[in-house]
Amino acid sequence: AVYMCEVERHHPQVLQNQDKESFSRLEDPLPAVVGVTYELCAGIVDKPGLSLEEIACGEVLEECGYRVPITDLRRITSYRSGVGVTGSRQTLFYAEVTDQMRTGEGGGQPEEGELIEVVEIPLEDSMKFAYDETLPKTMGVIFSFMWFQNNIAPKLPKK
Predict the structure, then answer these.
(1) Residues in a beta bridge with 92
(2) How many CB atoms lie within 10 A of CB 137?
(3) C-alpha 148: how far from its chain's center?
(4) Tens of pLDDT along 54-84?
(5) Where does the record place the Nudix hydrolase domain (predicted)?
(6) Which CATH number is correct for 39-120, 3.90.79.10, 3.30.365.10, 3.30.70.2190, 3.40.1190.20?
């Protein structure tokens, strides 16, 4: 969706008066990177019988490569996203991870179309990252960084 929004912004004529049968090819396609965004680790709640916490722990392992015990998760809040399109409900959890908890590379499941690179943002750069409009990110990322700065960062030892 992000890529297509950029195509529409750069080549508005391509999507005008188009339908599935007559969709034209871009003469000068944009690089795939324009569709890449920074996102939180996430997953669809589609596993009957598993709690949100169990699903979250599974997604952290699959996407980021860390084995997080359910007891290490802290539920922050739930909120709505995509209110004009999907109205989905998201639940945000917080967990601290260590190198000892890393059991794999993460990266998601390519066969499901996932192309995930784990990115670490240094604490001192976190708010600059959150507000940098040149780095495409979800509102959940910005909110999580603000929550962390208000709730966790003040309790950390000063350098």
Answers:
(1) 77
(2) 17
(3) 16
(4) 999 999 999 999 999 999 999 999 999 888 8
(5) 1-143
(6) 3.90.79.10
